């Protein structure tokens, strides 16, 4: 039986490709956009709305197929060690138990994917993709939905994370309204926020098909799932294998307004200026883009005066260059430059991914802040270089400079109308440039070197 589609409130939704809303061509129940002809899909009733449409399904099926192939290869490699003549008997028994557990993990993942209807099917165009992307952050499933009782029902990582967000919310003392969790992962925090902090609706958004499918199954479908954990290294007085039951606390009153949404935070199916609160938990450093782009995206999606709550460390991905690994001070400065008002900050050392199967303890420095988005036409703080250069999503004010002789400059200047940003102008001229030219860098360079230069 097909599970019914669980769509967030329609006034929050927009086409992730062209931005059309329900009044301008977005067909919600049909999951397609008449304005740009893009088609979306759902898995087990969870909307999977990407700007690339159903090509995302092909990618996911391929990644899943590749991940299974890789898991089978690893399994077979370990299996080759079992007949070794010099294996001590105890080690052989241990290895057999490990192999049983590894087989169980493969079956557990298949069970999850089957239950939401995602097939393993490698498309030729994705045959060389790296499957590990799909299983990245796998432990979050166990941290979010399994370990609490074994760690401590009263003091565990999930409780601490909620406490950090709760403190920020209490400090700003305003209703959360429609709340978007960007990079929600396995989505426990989103469910806790929804049940405890009373938003009007909560949208848990993530691109990872395993994490967000599990979240949808556990919370929306209230269907527990069993997952085996194996600890690869011996730990004294700790069992090496455990089969966990992942389960989300039921809350029938709150469930109708919580939604798992498979989508990309950079092109989400969400109307600009419609969200009251955005939470970015353990996300600002690992989303594939630099922080200025995130500030722009948060500002675009929030209502004027909307709230941005961030929590997590600054452990940038390898794709972020050293110059863009901004410090907390630099991020605060950039956010304030965009017109946000910082209302709360807290730094705390917290355990991270501490499994009951291990004595090891990893800790992280968690920075939590709350900031209010600016009102329209709010004057921006003065800075040098100006805010609209440092943050290319901000409107360029009309510039009082003598008309230049250079035709390129003349053209770029003619595009400045007090509303357009450097990003907007770069988009306008991009189609006239050669493929290897970066429109954004070019426009920035022109404005900095020629207009603001000595
Ligand atoms: C470090 S994990 C944190 C997950 C969760 N917030 C938590 O605290 O457990 C980062 C998450 O961001 C997600 N993510 C990264 N880039 C994304 C993007 N562009 N759009 C949506 N989700 C993204 C990843 O799939 C992953 O689940």
Q: How would you describe this structure in keywords?
A:
454 residues; alpha/beta; Rossmann fold; 3 domains; two-stranded antiparallel ribbon; 13 strands; 35% helix; 17% strand; globular; binds S-adenosylmethionine
Write the layout of secondary structure elements.
Elements (H helix, E strand, L loop, with lengths): L25 E2 L4 E2 L7 E3 L2 E3 L6 H25 L9 H28 L15 H4 L3 H7 L2 H4 L5 H16 L5 E5 L5 H9 L4 E6 L2 H12 L4 E6 L10 E6 L11 E5 L12 E7 L9 H11 E11 L15 H10 L3 E12 L9 E11 L14 H4 L16 H8 L7 H9 L8 H13 L3
Parallel strand pairs: 5-6, 5-10, 6-9, 10-11
Antiparallel strand pairs: 1-2, 3-4, 7-8, 11-13, 12-13
Helix pairs in contact: 1-2, 2-8, 6-7, 13-14
The structure holds S-adenosylmethionine.
S-adenosylmethionine binds next to strand 6.
Please, could you describe this protein's structure?
This protein has 454 residues and is of the alpha/beta class. Helices cover 35% and strands 17% of the residues. The strands form four sheets. The chain has a seven-stranded mixed beta sheet with strand order 9-6-5-10-11-13-12, with helices on both faces. It binds S-adenosylmethionine (SAM). S-adenosylmethionine binds at residues 137, 140, 183-185, 205-208, 211, 264-266, 281-283, 286-288.
Q: Quick summary of this structure?
A:
This protein is α/β, with parallel strands linked by helices and 454 residues long.
